[in-house]
Amino acid sequence: MNQMPAKYIIRLCSTPACHKTYRGEDFIRIVAEELGIKPRETSADGRFRLEIADCMGMCFHAPSMMVNEERYQDLTADKARQVLRQLKSA
């Protein structure tokens, strides 16, 4: 089956430094819950895909995420939810 790529690719860092220092695991859980998908899954409507990256080079601004090629840094859970909700309503 040929699946179309998602409109929004959400990338989160999985390096140990981000997890230990910035609670990356909690951040991944929060984003996954907001999107209603698990890491490496695409939403049923095909709009969102959640990817886990080895490193995105934004360690000093963690937690951070990328949406397609746009970077979001120094996030809080609320800021991340706000970004994702704006994308959902777009």
Report on the architecture of this protein.
With 90 residues, this protein is of the alpha+beta class. The protein has one domain (8-89): Glutaredoxin, CATH 3.40.30. It has three helices and four strands; from the N terminus they run E-H-H-E-E-E-H. A four-stranded mixed β-sheet has the order 2-1-3-4, covered by helices on one side. Helix 1 (16-22) packs across helix 2 and helix 2 packs parallel to helix 3. The longest helix has 13 residues, at 77-89. The mean pLDDT is 86.
Overall pLDDT level: 86
User: What level of helicity do the residues show?
Assistant: 25-40%
Judged by helices, strands and strand pairing, the structural class is alpha+beta
Radius of gyration: 12 Å
Strand order of the largest sheet: 2-1-3-4
Secondary-structure blueprint:
Layout: E1 8-13, H1 16-22, H2 24-35, E2 48-53, E3 65-67, E4 70-72, H3 77-89
Parallel strand pairs: 1-2
Antiparallel strand pairs: 1-3, 3-4
Helix pairs in contact: 1-2, 2-3
